[in-house]
Amino acid sequence: MSLYNFTDLLQVAKQREFKALGSFNLHCLEMLPAFFKAAEKTNSPLMIQISTGTAKYLGHRLLVDAICSLSASKNVPTCLHLDHCSDLEAIQTAIDAGFSSVMYDGSHLPIEENIANTRRVIDMARPRRVSVEAELGAIGGSEDGKVVALEEIAFTSVEDAKRFVHETGVDMLAISIGTVHGLYTGKAHIQHQRLTEITHATGIPLVLHGGTGVSDEDMRLAVRSGIEKVNVGTEMNVQWVARCKQTFEKGKVNDSVRNFLVPANDAVTDVLVEKIQLFR
Ligand SMILES: [Zn+2]
Known about the structure:
Blueprint: H1 6-15, E1 21-25, H2 32-42, E2 46-50, H3 52-58, H4 60-74, E3 78-85, H5 88-97, E4 101-104, H6 111-125, E5 131-136, E6 140-143, E7 146-148, H7 158-168, E8 172-175, E9 180-181, H8 192-202, E10 206-208, H9 216-224, E11 227-232, H10 234-250, H11 257-278
Parallel strand pairs: 1-2, 1-11, 2-3, 3-4, 4-5, 5-8, 6-9, 8-10, 10-11
Antiparallel strand pairs: 6-7
Bound molecules: zinc ion (ZN).
């Protein structure tokens, strides 16, 4: 089975009565079976996203081959997406390796430059039917080593979003409406009014980053107001590390390392299943 781009995968999700797709950050190859298990349990298509750092660590070809192979053998429609990337060369590398979706993040640039670069990425992606996500506004928190401080957060304006989508023709747009990347100390407060207005102004799928700290109620409301891709990363990582700490602590050095990882993967599957249910 070949990989799906975001637009095609969203259609599969809608046919199976999901309102949105979760996009889950894979941090290491060992975590991969847990993702597919969750997709099988929920009869959901699967969107896996990779940071540029993880792609470099694992190698693009290995990721594409492993994910294609699992997608075919498990019969799970799957999209492989490059998360936040502002380096056009790195995006080309991912497209050439077979990624089916990419994100160009020019949110730190003036809107004109963000539009120009996003258009270049779309020109690179279209011939391969690769979907393109862009970002407008500044989402707070830390992502793959990049930090946006609280005072630098800029919510996405409705007018800018409308112009951006019109001038780029991007497939999906990440917006800043109150969520923060990384680990939360409290709960995020989504600006639902702003979200609804941006949905009506743009008419394309909107993306929620920093899904970890959003309450279940807020998440359900967001996917009813135009969010069709929800990024979840930190929560799986936290569960995986917490469970590994326990098992490694208790185990013996001559135990198979596999035995330490299985409980961690079970915890990751549980997080994914719980999140996927919210998108119905
Ligand atoms: Zn993000």
